[in-house]
Amino acid sequence: MSRTIDVRCHLLPSNLRGWEVVKRLVEFFRGEGFVVVAAQPFPSRCFRVTFGKDGARAKAVFEGQGAISLDGVECEVACPPPQWVDVLVSWFPFERPEVEISNALKRYGEVRPGRFQKWPDLGSVYTGTRIIPMVVTKEIPRFLYVGKFCVKVWYRGQPITCDVCHAKGYKATDCPSKGKCFVCKEEGHLSKDCTRRVNVPVTEAAPQSPPCGQAPGGVVSGCPAEDLWDNELNSDSEG
């Protein structure tokens, strides 16, 4: 959280109500030249304060100071704990080790050991999707390579990305390319059957997309997720 700090106000008089503490916080930070846009109360009279404009600078200033003074009482300033989210990784082979996914994701934040997603009401039958807890510090692409395997990624807060054309801002159901061949943009056939394909091998060192890339004049032959991609182009599923 780049604009947020925690202020521990447990030493303030106990008869002060929560809104009264927030009022003092807002007035204090306004006097320092910063605007508070949110003040969330937590147990033990800790208040999570988020700043508006210049929030990153405010965070650096007050975390650097380590404390602020409210009514003559020193209140400790701390960095909020990291926010963990579940990152869902689909299309990765069930039998492959999780360490391969962890190595691919660690460039986007802190990674913890994950688990498999299960089908509802089917006991111990897994969907194959991995659920990986992460502190995401850098946006994870909707599609990325784990070794030679193209995988699909979703997590709460991820920017909306079209599963068909990879453009941001809309879903596959609204894609202008839906139902068309990805190579020639015509209807009536799939990209794997297009006569304008380029038949060159796909390598792990130089993966293509979508889902593995597009070579000049057509889609590369041999993409390990090609059938999945054609299904995305011609189905109503958001995935």
TrEMBL record:
UniProt-recorded Gene Ontology molecular function terms: double-stranded DNA binding; RNA binding; zinc ion binding
PANTHER family: GAG-RELATED PROTEIN (PTHR22639), ZINC FINGER CCHC DOMAIN-CONTAINING PROTEIN 3 (PTHR22639:SF3)
Protein name: CCHC-type domain-containing protein
Domain (CCHC-type): residue spans on this chain: 180-196
Keywords: Metal-binding, Zinc, Zinc-finger
SMART domains, per the entry: ZnF_C2HC
GO biological process, one term: activation of innate immune response
Matches recorded under PROSITE patterns: ZF_CCHC (PS50158)
InterPro entries referenced in this protein's UniProt entry, alphabetically: ZCCHC3 (IPR042509), Znf_CCHC (IPR001878), Znf_CCHC_sf (IPR036875)
